[in-house]
Structure formats: structure tokens, C-alpha cells
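[INFO] parsing input record for DUF1772 domain-containing protein
[DEBUG] input buffer:
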Amino acid sequence: MIDGPYFVLTLLGVLGCGLVAGVFCGFSTFVMRALAQLPPAQGVAAMNAINVAAVRPPFMLVFIGSAVLCSVLAVVTFVLLPADGTVELLLGSALYLFGAFGVTIAANVPRNDALLKLDPGTPEAAAYWPTFVRQWTMWNHVRAAASAAAAVSYALALT
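[DEBUG] output buffer:
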């Protein structure tokens, strides 16, 4: 059984990945649906405001802090090779680092940046908005599932 500081790190991994999964799940299940129902200019403006607000310390501490924690757990697991939980710990780290953090960098942030460059009231923004919502939400589903699966994997490592 995992114990001591390693237990605390793993428990924090469950918490961090779970919190991030909750944020992503909220966006996938109702925030993006609500934004998509707005007129394009309002939806674009609201999403741009959300994207600016998201890169502030409260969310970034949890989001990036979880990535750092997952990296530490992966390295410690490789070094210690514990008798219990090795597969679950490495799987949890990979799920979060690639499926949540990596997808954010590779798929969601570039779409956010493209949207931010558009003036919300323009025909270009209105034309891009439905594509943005569909693609961004699809990748957000991946992030939500990967974060939740990482939290479950870490929790299983504790059993």
C-alpha cells in the first residue's frame, strides 16, 4: 500500500485531476451549449471573456499544478517502482499529461487564440463560431474524460 508523502502526493493527484475534470465537464455539459445558443457575436464575446478569465491564478494553479504533480508522481514512480499501484500511477499521469494538459495546448488553446483575434460582430466571427463550438467542445470532452480517468486511476493506486 502507498503511504507517507507518496500517499499525500497521490491523494493530491486525485483531487487536482478531479477538480479539473469537473471544470471541463461543466463546459462540456452546459456552458458550451448555452454559449452556442447565443447570437454569434454574443457567444464569441462571452467565450473570449471566459478565456481571458481562465488564465488567472485560481484556475491555473489547479490546472498547471496538477500537471506538475502528475509529472512528479510519474518520475517518483519510475524511480521507486513501488510494489503496489505502479501501473495506476503511471496511467493516471499519462492520462492527465497527454489527455488533459496536452490536448489543451494542442487543440483548445489554438482555437481560443484564433477566436480572440476575431472581432465578435464581424461576419468572419459569425462564420467561425459554429465550427469553433463544435471542435472546441469535442476536444473538451477528451480533456474531461482524460482528467476524470486520471483521478480514478490515482484513486485505484491508493487501494
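[INFO] The chain has a mean pLDDT of 96.
[INFO] shutting down worker
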